[in-house]
Amino acid sequence: MKAKSQFVCQKCGTSYAKWVGQCSNCGAWNSLVEEAPQLENEKKSALSKGQASGKKLNYVKISTIVPSDAKARLLTEFKDLNMVLGGGILMGSVCLLAGQPGMGKSTLLMQICATVAREHNVLYVSGEESAGQVKLRAVRLGAESERLSFAASTSANDIAKTIETGEFDLVIVDSIQTLMMDEISSAPGTVSQVTNCGNLIIRAAKSTDTAVVIVGHVTKDGTLAGPKVLEHLVDVVLNFEGDRYGGFKTLRAVKNRFGSTNEVAIFEMIDSGLREVENPSAALLAERTNTDGSVILATLEGNRPLLVEIQALCTQSNFGYPKRTASGFDLNRLNILIAVLERRTKLRLSDKDVFINVVGGMKLNDSAADLAICVAIASAVAGRKLDEKYVVFGEVGLGGEIRSAFRSDQRIAEARKLGFLHAIGPASVHDKFVIPAKDLRETLIKYVK
């Protein structure tokens, strides 16, 4: 009897007998794709064959194994990117690079190829672009080299076989969602195709000690498309984020088996490609004008201290429901801080629209940004300025108390370097540079003038 097709969720892998709009397991909408099922006799046959074909493992003493960090690393032209990777691209490692369309992933990879191809053999495999398109980018970025090769293919079998030859030290695969295995009948980008293609390429990379960088697509909400198992399989997961139309772009490691996940590389796009920003704090503050609602925040991007401008705008609401908008800051957290301001400082915000902007396209994930957001809102509402030589940082509790911030010493050092006189911060920081702030209401009355 011919087996009926099944519908598999591309988020969690749950299968259904018929198509439904929402997966009941993970809650994802429109994630079901029709696939041919594996018959029961095929499953039993594969299980019995697997049990019969198994053999004893060839094991070695752990004291004789050469550590991965002792292997050579491929250095790129970006020192901050090398730091994010833990010292460069490790031979035999598999890195997954994800980011929104138009962010500059292909540009970054071509610039990496240009540097690595000076001393090593590099293969750029594209399943999305033609040879002519890649050639134009290589010419624009100055990446033409005798050691840089190109291939256009969507066959994971062919790519894995090419990697197994050991001819290349670095292989770029753009992208995993376009690849397919001949043995699987489902369409490219489905759970089964992405998982199996990823497995095939990873095995080939490990067997020949070849470094591989795989490009991954993202969904509308910014998460990596495809099954979560792909992130578990690879060694490094890099997330490229920022404003695609301007501003700074940040590259951070979400997962790294060979280094820290607290490092971050900051880039800007110019005519000749991506360029590292040597002093992002100075660049972000270069065009600042000291007006009401403008506050300088001492924040952290990974382990890097950074000064960014927080802008707040408060206007009278024309409707019964006030509007809250945040660019670069979590909207739910903004609503909490507005509630704390209304309750603990008696500011009237229920009839005002509140707009928050983090200048430069930065996205803040720092809890110490709370105090700067509150000071900016209070400054905008009162029409009063904060002294332009002050920076602000600190977490705000629901009781209006100011709590300690992570790595305060680095924030203070960055503010001093750029000529600021004082920082308004948690009272727990024992430094003459910091003006202690214990309570939100007292801080606003004292310093927003």
CATH superfamily label of the largest domain: P-loop containing nucleotide triphosphate hydrolases
**What Rg is obtained from the alpha carbons, in whole angstroms?**
26 Å
Structural shape: globular
Overall residue-averaged pLDDT value: 88
What is the CATH topology assignment of the largest domain? Rossmann fold
Derived structural class: alpha/beta
Distance between the termini: 81 Å
Which structural traits does this protein have?
Ribosomal Protein S5, domain 2; 26% strand; Rossmann fold; 3 domains; 449 residues; globular; 7-stranded mixed beta sheet; 9-stranded mixed beta sheet; alpha/beta; single chain
Describe the protein in words.
By secondary structure, the protein is of the alpha/beta class. The protein has three domains: 1-42; 70-278, 3-Layer(aba) Sandwich (Rossmann fold), CATH 3.40.50.300; 285-447, Ribosomal Protein S5, domain 2 (2-Layer Sandwich), CATH 3.30.230.10. Helix content is 28%, strand content 26%. It has helices spanning 40-53, 79-84, 105-116, 131-141, 156-164, 191-208, 229-233, 280-285, 331-344, 370-382, 408-417, 440-447, and strands at residues 6-9, 15-16, 32-35, 73-74, 89-90, 94-99, 122-126, 148-152, 170-174, 211-216, 236-242, 249-256, 264-270, 273-276, 294-301, 304-316, 324-327, 352-358, 390-392, 395-396, 402-403, 422-426, 434-437. The strands form five sheets. The chain has a nine-stranded mixed β-sheet. A hairpin with a 5-residue loop joins strand 20 (395-396) and strand 21. Helix 5 runs parallel beside helix 6. The longest helix is centred in the middle third of the chain and has 18 residues, at 191-208. The model has no long low-confidence stretch (mean pLDDT 88).
